[in-house]
């Protein structure tokens, strides 16, 4: 190791440590912070973001990166230099004042969003969102990567992705999903005698017992409690201040068992990825997910491909009956499998079924892309949202809380983030199909609660590769082909074909 | 406002925001962090400490301070310059590497201490403490304030205090307390028929009901829950990431109602001070306590002068009986007052009565002063601790967990901190005596649970003055005289004279 290389690593580790501290500030704001602490927290987040930005833009870091880039580097070190360059290149294009303004504005907007959602008070949130959109447009213009403003933001979450490539992919997906939705809805209508299979899981489910179930499923999935936590927040999320401190949040709904359980499984999928990042890369910029699409593939694989499978309920039905004897006394695995796979156009993205979920995403993608381009304004969002929901899902929110106010993302400045959810669904199905080929007894293992071999496969194929490879490279290496909609659509056709007797 | 003044304030606010972030990292480590997250947290704390130190040592800050010091300043602005100078003067004497080494070493030592205390494993903790002591001695030598190494550390917590002045004060206190202890112990021995009045509050007290009581007392004291939290940690403490986010922790012992209740009241006293710092000073270096002795005066005033008074139990006995009907069915205010005022030499500082408490402090003061001077070594601590306990209290710890390992302070690098507890007791009694003069119906108010006027008095006299004045100035202004042992000793003689019929 050259002296330069050591100095570069020291600087990169400091940047990583400052990020970890910023992650804690954000987690704490969602889970712990009392309301009157919000303004100071916004300033603290801004101060940290400012320091980190200053460090990234330091000419000495620049010199070290370029000095080390000239060395003969192995693949890992080359990836470290590549990611250091990438972070620096984005940072130097953005003024420090914009960075701190954004940190403070989004911190305040998140708080305003939480209150606005509670009261369904769009006018209370709109000025905050206008401010955030304005700042994000300035940021996108400064970064200027890709063919349109949106690309600069998208690229931060899904390196290399471009809106113009996603648009046709999403259009195809929407068409196929609309077809499938129509078929399933027709079949369900013809089978009215079946009633609503989901009614089984709505009613009265004590939160303490729900939490117990969540914790047991989490343990069975292999989540290491000595390197993480599970808490409650308004909007479930996962964040890691380090690979030894991976924090999941969930949200229990006493009237619906599905809400908390699947939020926990989803976030645990994210958490297992974070806990599986390799120790030897810790502190470097490649100790990160390949992309947020890949991150989401892990959460969706566990939530949908495993958690909403018949085999999952073969394993967990007896335990669920014991925990909720009044409600589930006569429920078998088949009943529970049906109850968690009701297909029905609905208002809330995070509670959507596997067929309609991506339709929620496509709407958000189109709206935020147009916002960034300046083609629409924040004031138009509620009307455009409602019209979009009507058009693609045939439902209209009665209140903004169930419409445009439902997600925290825009308040947090996360434009270009939603598409990674749809990509995650596609990656999840493609990875799962491959895992099923390589682990032929996978269904049987899942039905016995033995998901260790699957976790091991994900660890080896995906987690330990961290950000050494791009999402596209990872996909080709793991599955032998480029990302495609087919494994996802096949999975849906097979599963819902069976469930609805198509 | 000159341009320089605005630039100075901007820099001071950033320093304050970085401190707030560091406070959160430390709080989270004690209350939330999973064990495997500790090493990364140590690095994160070190990174923040390094950044903050670098900012304090920036020649531009220096230039701004000196430019502004030349202006005609009002009292508040002059105090801001004075405190900015003080922080800078300390910082520039210490190498950045020592700052980050200390941050990391103390973060790791705290974790080691928690494990070592649990297992009473002194050898597991000793190497960490040796490292911390070594670093603190280097820090003290670098700062070089006062007549001996200890003074440099003491001055950080109690500006202007010197070990050579505290030593005779503490010697006098020890003598008086030993006398009083002997008198009370003799009286108690003569009254064996009374049994142990404390037995009333030992037994089985459901933690949920204890938490309920704690929360009700907290609310009655005037703690604003929208600007703070109450959590549980191994070692109760208070920390504030801002005046809108004041975090108390407590610790419940199912077998002893006193432990959790008085920990909560004590920390709430600290918390009320933090919540009472004036909004208009927020973000400046004078938005802080006058000294830790003054801070501790607030916790001890509420804990002992109010919480352990007969009037407190006149108010709270009915509620305690309802919450713990089995144990307290026949307990009246007098019984409860006696139960929380048992004088008995014991091993654990934070559970000590008002007479013996300061004896615990004097021992720690003497040991840490000698450690810093290099007169004793870490390896000698357990034996010296036990000998000191025997000599001043007549009791000997059976395990190091109940002896030298009981406090987190040294692991955290907090040498020079303990004396502020004894000073706090003295200030508390002197302030309370003054409050009783100015609020003649104070006992009556307390017995009716109306402590609002007292809080208001503390707010006006102490809290809003923040760090504008020194502890000594504050004491003279509020009470008309310098700090003295007499109000404290008078309080003890009056109270225990009554209780033990002296």
Walkthrough of the structure:
The structure is a homodimer of 502-residue chains. The first copy, chain A, is globular. In chain A, helix 11 packs across helix 17 (419-438), helix 12 packs across helix 14 and helix 15 runs antiparallel to helix 17. Chain A has helices spanning 3-31, 38-56, 59-69, 75-92, 96-119, 122-143, 149-157, 163-190, 207-221, 257-276, 292-306, 310-323, 325-328, 333-339, 357-373, 381-393, 419-438, 442-447, 452-461, 471-479, 486-499, and strands at 228-232, 238-242, 245-250. Chain A has two domains: 3-118; 163-499, Orthogonal Bundle (Neurolysin, domain 3), CATH 1.10.1370. Helix content of chain A is 65%, strand content 3%. The relative contact order of chain A is 0.12. Chain A contains 21 helices and three strands. Chain A starts with a helix and ends with a helix. Chain A is mainly alpha-helical and 502 residues long. The model of chain A has no long low-confidence stretch (mean pLDDT 96). Chain A has a three-stranded mixed β-sheet. Chains A and B meet through helix 1 and helix 2 of A and helix 1 and helix 2 of B.
